[in-house]
Each structure stands twice: as C-alpha cells, then as structure tokens.
C-alpha cells in the first residue's frame, strides 16, 4: 500500500509598510481576489486571511494592515492587528519595495521584528523588482540581510507574478504537518458579508481618490438568498459628515450609482451568480469611535486605546 499523503497547514503573516504590495501578493498566491487592492495607503483594515494551496500544503495568508505611525484610534487598532497577525503566524514575510529601499518605516519594522518573530523564520520579499537595476537590487538585499537574519530572500513582482511561484513553493515546505485548516474550496475566512463590504469600499476608494481617503466605512446590513439562486445585498456607507454624504452620492447620484454597478459586477464574478446590490449613505459623525464599526472591520476596538 502507498503511504498516506501527509498534509501540511499553517499561517503566514505578510507584513510591511502601507502600499508595499501585501494585498496584491495575497491575491496572487491565492489565485483569486480576496483582499482589497488600491493605490491608496492603509486600505487593508482587517487581517484578511487568504487560503492558498500548493501540493499537500495549505498556506493561510494573514494579509495585515500596513505598519505605520498611528495617530487615531482606527490607526492604532490597525497597527495592533498587523503585529497581532505576525505574532500568531508560523512564518513571517516582510515585504519591502525595491525602488524605495530602506525607509524610516522599514527601519521601524526591523526594530520591532526580533521581539515579534521570537525565533520564528522570517523571509524577506523585495517587491516591484522591475523598477530598479540588478545592482540596486543586490545592494538592497545585502543591506537588509545585514540588518536582520532573514532565512530566505525572494525577489518578486507581486503585480506581474515574477518570483511568486518560488515564494509559494518555499512557504508550502515551511508549513508544519497538520490537517488542513479550511475546506479545499474555501479561499478566505472572512464571511461573505465582509468580503462584499470590502469590495464596495474598494470601489468607493478608487472613485473618490483624495476626497475621502478613509473617513468612510461600508457594512453589509442584510443578505437575502432568493429562490432563483440570486441574492439581495443591502449595504450602508457610513460617512462622518453631511458634506461627505454629498461627495459619495455625487451629482444626481452618479457616483454612488457607478460604485454600486462596479461592486455588483465584481461580486457577481466572485460568486458566479446574480446579485442585486442596494447602497444607502448615512451620516454617522462618531463612527470612528463606535466599537460595533470596529467589529464589522474585524478589528479590536480596545486596540485603538492610546
């Protein structure tokens, strides 16, 4: 008789500065879009777990919020979530941008890394390698490895996929022997309601550019499965001020209509079925201080305390 296949499973925390490419890398490794991707910093709020399969290994990716200097309660809760995600993982991958090199933010992360890693393997992934010359890349690799004892260094482009397969193979081999933690067809551990809210928030973020970088949040208030296989999804966009409501709605409701159409199309593609999406915009001046809003984002309200 052939020996039974040994399965492996474990958690990998992707950490780095905002916009380093963690969400893009998560989506590429999973092979589907599970994490919000925009060109804005600090768009990932919750520790979104994407589930990637490689051979007999299940790699659960903790795509943490970017690490930055927190100023507000939401900032502090996001940073606490990022370090918490790293502390819970079997392997940590620090993602830095090739063209930005060792920034002050990277130096701060390196200062905290020994305390968080606690003898767990930490790999370095240098992203956006297509933006620099090979000489710059080699210099950066040497500099980073002199600053911290990384077990492996990978040179990748998360957006274009260069080097991602090598990283995925290595991560699969680093996972401990274990039964798989999620069903084979599950690609994220967020409830569908939260994934749907994140999709809408991404479309708002892309549409509004600098006007409302993150004075808004989206919640899926109601999800109704219909007999014909479709679903009705009702969402609320919370904003902090009356003026913000006008920006989100747009002239004659054009902005919210375009956002709704884009979010619905992506949700339909993701689920492979018809979705009826309805958005409302509500002013809630103190939503940044309400614990329920943090729970909806997968963050701990208490972590936002100074």
From TrEMBL:
Residues 127-130 are annotated as: G4. Keywords: Cell membrane, Cytoplasm, GTP-binding, Membrane, Nucleotide-binding, Ribosome biogenesis, RNA-binding, rRNA-binding. It is found in: Cytoplasm; Cell membrane. It comes from the Bacteria. GTP binds at residues 16-23, 63-67, 127-130. The keyword GTP-binding applies. Residues 156-158 are annotated as: G5. GO terms for molecular function: GTP binding; GTPase activity; ribosomal small subunit binding; small ribosomal subunit rRNA binding. Residues 42-46 are annotated as: G2. Residues 208-285 form the KH type-2 domain. It holds the Pfam family MMR_HSR1. Residues 16-23 are annotated as: G1. It is a peripheral membrane protein. Residues 63-66 are annotated as: G3. CDD domains: Era, KH-II_Era. InterPro entries: G_ERA_dom (IPR030388), GTP-bd (IPR006073), GTPase_Era-like (IPR005662), KH_dom-like_a/b (IPR015946), KH_dom_type_2 (IPR004044), KH_sf_prok-type (IPR009019), P-loop_NTPase (IPR027417), Small_GTP-bd (IPR005225). PANTHER family: GTPASE ERA, GTPASE ERA, MITOCHONDRIAL. An essential GTPase that binds both GDP and GTP, with rapid nucleotide exchange. Plays a role in 16S rRNA processing and 30S ribosomal subunit biogenesis and possibly also in cell cycle regulation and energy metabolism. Belongs to the TRAFAC class TrmE-Era-EngA-EngB-Septin-like GTPase superfamily. Era GTPase family. Monomer. This is GTPase Era. It comes from Maritimibacter alkaliphilus HTCC2654. The lineage of its organism: Bacteria, Pseudomonadati, Pseudomonadota, Alphaproteobacteria, Rhodobacterales.
């Amino acid at each position: 008789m052939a020996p039974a296949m040994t399965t492996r499973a474990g958690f990998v925390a992707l950490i780095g500065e905002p916009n380093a490419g963690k969400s893009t890398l998560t989506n590429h490794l999973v092979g589907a879009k599970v994490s919000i991707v925009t060109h804005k910093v600090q768009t990932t709020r919750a520790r979104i777990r994407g589930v990637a399969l490689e051979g007999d290994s299940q790699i659960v990716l903790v795509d943490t919020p970017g690490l930055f200097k927190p100023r507000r309660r939401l900032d502090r809760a996001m940073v606490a979530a990022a370090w918490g995600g790293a502390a819970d993982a079997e392997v940590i991958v620090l993602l830095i941008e090739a063209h930005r090199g060792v920034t002050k933010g990277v130096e701060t992360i390196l200062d905290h890394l020994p305390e968080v890693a606690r003898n767990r393997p930490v790999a370095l992934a240098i992203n956006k390698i297509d933006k620099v010359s090979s000489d710059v890349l080699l210099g950066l690799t040497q500099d980073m490895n002199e600053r911290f004892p990384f077990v492996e260094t990978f040179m990748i482009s998360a957006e274009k996929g260069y080097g991602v397969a090598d990283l995925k193979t290595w991560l699969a081999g680093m996972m401990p022997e274990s039964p798989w933690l999620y069903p084979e067809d599950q690609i994220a551990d967020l409830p569908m309601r939260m994934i749907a809210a994140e999709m809408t928030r991404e479309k708002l973020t892309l549409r509004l550019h600098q006007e409302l970088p993150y004075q808004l949040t989206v919640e899926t208030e109601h999800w109704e499965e219909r007999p014909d296989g479709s679903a009705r999804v009702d969402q609320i966009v919370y904003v902090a001020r009356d003026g913000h409501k006008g920006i989100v709605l747009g002239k004659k409701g054009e902005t919210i209509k375009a956002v709704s159409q884009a979010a619905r199309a992506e949700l339909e593609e993701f689920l492979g079925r018809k979705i009826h999406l309805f958005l409302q915009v509500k002013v809630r001046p103190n939503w940044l201080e309400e614990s329920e809003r943090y729970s909806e984002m997968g963050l701990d309200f208490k972590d936002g305390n100074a």
